[in-house]
Amino acid sequence: RLKCNESHLRAGGWSPLHSDRYQWLEVDLGRRTQITAVATQGRYGSSDWLMAYVLMFSDTGHNWRQHRQEDSIGAFPGNSNADSVVQYKFQQPVIARYLRLVPLDWNPSGRIGLRLEIYGCPYTSDVASFDGSSSMLYRLSPRPSRTARELISLKFKTLRNAGTLLHAEGQRDHSLTLALEKGKLLLYFQQGSCLGRQHLVSLGSLLDDQHWHHVKVERFSTHLNLTVDKNTQQVHIPAELSHWDIHQLSLGAVQSHGFLKPKRNFHGCLENLLYNGLNLIDLAKKNDHQVAGNVTFSCAEPVSVAVTFTGSQSFLQLPGSTGWTLGVVSLELHFRTWNKAGLLLTFDLPQEEAVCHAVSFRKTFKVDMQRGSSSLNDGQWHSVGLRSRQDHLTITVDKEEGSSAHTSISFPFVTGSHLFFGGKRRNISIIYILCKICMRLIQCLEDKEIIPSHPPFLSLSLSLSLSLSLSLSLSLRCSPSHCEHGGRCSQSWSTFHCNCSNSGYKGATCHSSMYEQSCEAYKHKGNTSGHYYIDVDGSGPIKPQLIYCNMTEDSTWMVIQHNNTELTRVQPSPEGKQHSAHFDYSSEEEQLAAIISQSDHCEQELSYHCRKSRLLNTPEGSPFSWWVGGPGPGQVQTYWGGALPGSHQCACGLQDTCLDPKHYCNCDADHDQWANDSGLLTHKETLPVRSLVLGDVQRLGSEAAYRVGPLSCHGDKNFWNAAFFDKETSYLHFPTFHGELSADISFLFKTTASSGVFLENLGIKDFIRIELSSSTEVVFSFDVGNGPLEVRVEAGVPLNDNRWHSVRAERNVKEASLRVDELPAATQEAPADGHIHLQLNSQLFIGTASRQKGFQGCIRSLQLNGITLDLEERAKITPGVRPGCPGHCSSYGSLCQNQGRCVERANGFTCDCGLSAYTGAFCHKEVSASFKSETSVSYIFKEPYELSRNDSALPSSIYSDMTLRGEKISLSFRTSQSPALLLYVSSFYREYLALLINKHGEDVQTTLRLLFFVRNLADGRLHTVTIRRLTDTVSVQVTLTHTHMSLPHRLSQGCLRNPGTDQLARLASLGFTGCLSAVHFNSISPLKAALLHPDSPVIITGPLAQSSCGSSSPANPYLNLISLFDFPGDEVVSDCSCLFLWFPGVIAVVIFITVSAMAIMARFIYRRKETYRNQEVKGVQPEDGPEFPYSSQADSQSAPSEHQKEYFI
41, 154, 225, 443: which could join 273 in a potential S-S bond, CB 3.0 to 4.6 Å? Predict the structure, then answer.
């Protein structure tokens, strides 16, 4: 004992003869005791003390269980000298009679030495034993009043993995059943005797280990808690159980006619069964029960030993039976494991130099068998039987399920043979080695167990570790399960795995969401409008929901639908009652609240169409109609769309535009004509609309219709929440971060500094930190008690480029990971049996308050376990830190396509598509239209003021200054027509440019001809053409779909006195039939103006319908560039050509658009007006940029003029 130092006790203490890991000290307390603490001390006056040890407990002295600390740590810290006392108090008392202490480490300068004291008190209990065919039934007296809480608690122990523990019945034949299935505890609910059972919850694993397990079932009004040992799981109960009283309880079996019964009754012991404080086993002792079968009030335990093989060198050697000489051999054992392959049993065959396996035989013969489709490495107990008689051998696996294999062979066993169970026998080469397994109930011949309580003939390998243990020491790595969000846990001997399929989450423990938290986040990854899964709280408890994201040029909307968004006609009720409507949303309540809270703006349309149907009545009267909106059940609202909360008005009342000035709604005028009150509800506190009540719809002649639109929200406060840190010493502080078992941290940063700490949180020993260690490396470091661990990501490119970069770090009980931008994640595995709880106690610092170098730059959207920290609010009151962080186009500007311009905003950016022929959030959406043969679109430029006043007297110098030096034209088309005119541009001086498709042989006289060898362009496929001219240089870039263009040809311009306008007019008269998209002439998009901006100077003739020509950006386009310079012209002819005719000058333009076909060929004609035929265009050197210079503002719509000219064919 402690402090024992009397000389007659040999100085006190225990010290075994050999100091190795196969020694132990066992204490018999004489009876079951409630043990609360143990204390150790070294041997008095020596250098002998323990530095680490393991504690094991047992009720019988042969079935042991290792005690583990809260973090699943098996080893306990010992002493550092021979005199000091180290005490360990158990968080929960341990009930046991026997205690065994196994030394793990001791003073290297001494030996194993120990003085020990155990603290506790006697333990009393009421026990009942069931033999698998017995049961007890209790009929409970009705209670005068219903309680808000019911509690059932008990302890059980068993060797069977299935059986009914408890069955409770109430009124209307509703019942709850607590049953053991495959070593797990399951709770079922059955509604009536004819309906099937509903599985409510399951908990625990490997509960058939012949150790006591504590179970508690608590029922509240809305939910139920199931507790097994230290683990609790909550489940919402069916409505039928909310007000349900238990009438009778049956133990060990289901004693009720008509109910579905489990396969087996319970076989084992129950202890301290309490129902709302009533001791049922004590009542049973007083004969206040009904008993079926043999029930005893003591727990008789079978004397069996479970052996655990913990390594490949562990084996158990036992002698054979003397009865083997008779030619009859019978052997059976039970095993459980999670390993997929291994060795169970070997023994020698004396006449053959061979080794025999229980499931495979080497050299002589081999028998392979499987047990159906189920697995034998599922952690459950499985039986293997081997029986040999004369020349017949039978092997049976799980005999109750009937799996067996037979063979005929002579099997000569002799007396003196030895059996080797598990492991690897020395000097024998075995192919299959089972490293880790548990065995029990090993029997031979006459069904006698051959493993006694303390077998003297165990042969252990000379391993440095405890390689074989007389206990069932499988680690339950899935109980409790560390898999989150519904992930399914499975385990091996040394670790566990989480199956995250169909959960919406990912990672080692299914902790991290697979989806973004808002439509705004999807947009900034380059996504366009569509349906996306949104997880508003990331790794939090709210499930992902499918939501439509409408990404426009100005805003990104989250659209949440409900069950009725259409205009609905009110049908009069025959009872003359009010009409009510309820709206069920596609998103769950928690997600709705989170979306509304984190959005900058939300709105919902509310409209009412009426004919002699009043809406809100007079301001003084009670409203005829109202709606309910807001969080939770909502509140009654008596204002209408477009008005303010509490105003009792409609939009017209707020604007003073109602039909009757005496009323504040149009419908309250009660006119016998249709009217409406419509508007948007924009106050988030009253959204969403949950129900609607319409009162004045039953009068004769009354008619009404209503519409409640979907809930739409835009803006994400969390995504743009940012702070700028001016100095390295600047920091923000927040409350302690609690991420004991799982922690994920994500944020974006941009900086010009080469290093700095992003955040850190410290504990007494534990800590967590993320830092930029160099300009190219991010480090995630932490310590949970196993020593510091670092995860590093080397980006390979500078991260201090003042652009946004994303960081995501995660730490769980299995691994730690770090990801930067879209680089591969770096991971580090956690120790299998180390500390798992992260214990922090200081404040969380963004930046650093320690001596390390702080972060200088911007941090945005910082989230810890799905919760966003409000950096902006904290920065407003913190010196050295500023709220917000501008400069987003440097990171996101590349998302703007097709000449779209990135525009900075305080929270984010937008793409300005004003100079683009495209539209959409990223200027990515083509503007397309289908044309008939009679359709044309003309865009009109205003004439220069001087030219319109006196064009005949215009000097040549003015003409030269207004001459376009270059043009850029691009368009896409799809057509099957040939010939056809695609585009026509004319100037005020009868100069023109034309792009047309022509058949082979039908040439147009031009000053310049350019044709291509290509396939048929009028083939109904999409073709794109881009034409650039800079003075006397013209380039044509053609994109063909699924077609290779022939090699480019070049030609020079020539002179042709006859312009051939009659032939051009003949082709143009055919019109164009097909689809045209993305038409762009310099800075003008005429087709976009015609379809989306009706106030623009556009004239539309014939039918014009918006449509989709197809993808505007093919995956693998074939691009060819044709450049034209001054050299002799050649002519190339194709089957179907695209001609490009050019007459430059001052292009005050009419664009005739009839476009959308697929391949392009260009013919270039350059002609001057006869009056200015000898004028020379000022030469300009070509530029590399995409823009072309102008010498005047001739194409500006702002030029002062009273006249307009229009040219089209």
Answer: 154
For residue 772, the domain's CATH number is: 2.60.120.200
Structure tokens given for 999: 């058949």
Contact 619, 660 (CB under 8 A): no
Q: Do 826 and 861 sit in the same domain of this protein?
A: yes
Which residue, among 170, 421, 395, 414, has the nearest Cα to 275 in the 3D structure? 170
Both tokens of 367, joined, read 């028998």
Amino acid at 1152: F
Do 870 and 989 have their domain in common? no
**Region 944-968 average pLDDT:** 49
Mean pLDDT of all residues in 850-867: 90
pTM of the model: 0.73
Residue with tokens 């074939």: 1118
Write out the residue range of the structural domain in which residue 219 sits: 127-255+263-292
Q: Are residues 239 and 108 in the same domain?
A: no
Candidates 410, 126, 92, 160; CA nearest to 302 is 160
Query: Phi, psi at residue 337, to the nearest 5°?
Result: -165, 165
Residues 729 and 876 in one domain: yes
pLDDT band at 1150 (very low <50, low <70, confident <90, very high): very low
Closest to 314 (Cα-Cα) out of 430, 459, 450: 459
311 in Cβ contact with 434 (< 8 Å): no
- List, for residues 998-1045, the tens digit of each pLDDT value: 665 444 333 333 444 345 667 778 888 888 877 777 777 766 554 333
Tracing tokens 């209790």 back to the chain, one arrives at 138
What ranges in 864-938 are assigned the alpha helix state H?
871-875, 889-892
Q: If you ran DSSP here, which 8-state letter would residue 301 be given?
A: -
If asked whether residues 700 and 735 sit together in one domain, one would say: no
Q: What are phi and psi of 918, to 5 degrees?
A: -110, 170
d(CA 426, CA 312): 11
Structure tokens belonging to residue 947: 């030219």
Cα–Cα distance for residue pair 1175/1167, rounded to 1 Å: 11
* Cβ 100 vs Cβ 64: under 8 Å: yes
In a domain, 237, yes or no: yes
Contact 1055, 1076 (CB under 8 A): no
Does residue 1183 lie in a domain region? no
706 shares a domain with 739? no
Distance separating alpha carbons of residues 864 and 887, to the nearest angstrom: 25
Asked if 687 and 770 sit in the same domain, the reply is no
